[in-house]
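Our consortium's second objective concerns turning raw sequence data into structural hypotheses that experimental partners can test. To show how far this objective has progressed, the report includes one record in full. It was chosen at random from the queue rather than selected for favorable results. The single chain below, 575 residues long, was entered without modification.
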Amino acid sequence: MKKCISVLLCLILAFSSVSLFAVSASAAENILTVNATSNIPELFPGSSMEISSASGSNQVTVTYWYNTKNYCMLNCEFTLTYDRDYLEYDHTKNVNEKLNDRGNLVPLFVKNAFVKGEPKGIIFNTNPASFAEGNIGAIKANCTNTNGYDVCEGKSAFISVTFNVKKNSGETNVNLQIKTLGFRKDGETTVNPVYLVSKSQIVKNSPVEYVTDKSYSVAYAGPYNEKYVPVVDNDKNLEISMNLELTVNLKTAFYVKKAAVGDMTDLRMNIKYSDDYSTVDKDLTNSEATVDGVEYYKFVYEGVNPQRMYDEYKVTVSANDNGIPHYRTETKGVKSYIYKALTDSKNQKWYTIFVDLLNYGSAGQTFKGYHDDELINSDLSKSPYVNIKALTNIVNVENAKLKSKIKVTNDYIREVNDDKFRKIDNPEAEYKGIQLVLGSVIAMKYHFNIADPAGKYVRVLHYDSNGNEVSVPVYIPAEEFLSENDHYAVMYKDLKANQMRDLVYFTVVDSEKKPIGNTTRFSIVSEYYIRKNQMENPGSLSDSDKEYVNNLVAYEKAMMIYGDSVIYYLKNNSD
């Protein structure tokens, strides 16, 4: 089988074996799922709500909201059914019914069928003979008012019924079966009925327009609440999966199943560090990926600094289902993710990469003065990790020596003058310096001076340590040049984790891609050896500068060890 050329492709099997798309632990309290459904889902889209016993309420209310424009309801006929094993109709005064001024029991559940506080033209039966036997309870009702009930524009509660909960765990349905729903034009002096629902079906080409994002069915704990704004929080269907893309710039990929999103709209993902270090809000609608034949919405987050592997961050997915916002928030983190991976013995061949990656982050934290926690020894010496074969040696033995030294000619930054690159005697572009940027993005930053950058490019050539070209040339245009006081700079950040020993060549070229400056070669290893030499020969460096360089060398050393672990893996594994 062909060997992987991408660290991500090689590592994805590891993450699937540690339950890449893990399911969160279920809550301890009892959960009753109430499905509010209808035979006219176009007008009353169904929804499911989890009612927790921890809410302290022994009541559940099911409300069917709708919104029509410029019409008022004229008549209706419907049956609402429920399961008596789970729910019972609440006959308490002023809950679903009340006595009117004439001493007659009148319903409250048809919330729109009221004239000056009194229901008009309503016939209802909460215990029809046709449903006397069995566990299915029902309410049958019809209503007529030739003057028309209230105009339904704006969110209107068509029907709302409150039940007592008899069984607070499991799943049950409340279903609205509408047979007839007629309207009259608002302001008309004569009755000219038009129907939106007739014979239990939506009438085609009905002039009555309904607003889908304000029409829905919903269940919630407690009595009827006209101000209730339905929100589905912790929606288990919007489960968030995580994967690591192990490049020099650590990337975290998040996934949400397309099938779970279904017809919901406005799909977004928000990622926020606990200390407000970084917040990202992303539209996921057009970010799609397929993994093992399953379709997902995918977002790759590039804001994880290697030195912030310790951090956890909140990932929230939100979507809209016919006016009902759905949310799910999960806590994610690189350290916690890798620690979980290390509990699965199937991942033994990745242990070295995982631990070297954590050491890389730990060295970054020390360099940045961010966290004292080493990410490794403080927790990996405890259960369940102490019983993992081969891990103890990785933790306790200093994995400190680079596997092979680079050639002496590559130790330092240098202008290249060989068969491929010739020295230019009077360069239009002048080299000013190069540096390794260690921040939210690990990049090479090439500095140069040029009088007029218009139409110019910086050509970037990428070779491996054996001199083989890795990719086609990259041309960074003048529009992407960074202004640096008296000169310009460009950033190159396309190295993978297994390419830290690779050589990168920078050349300023003209509009025809011909060199107008000398070529400079650089590598991460070059930077490491420069700093290592600076540490061993500090000269007049102050104590604080010595500490800085010492921590920087440790950081770059850990980076190189991690990169070498990936190189070793790729050389010895084919997937």
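The partners drew two points from this record. The two ends are 6 Å apart (CA to CA). Residues 532 and 553 are 6 Å apart (CA to CA). Both points have been shared with the crystallography group to help prioritize constructs.
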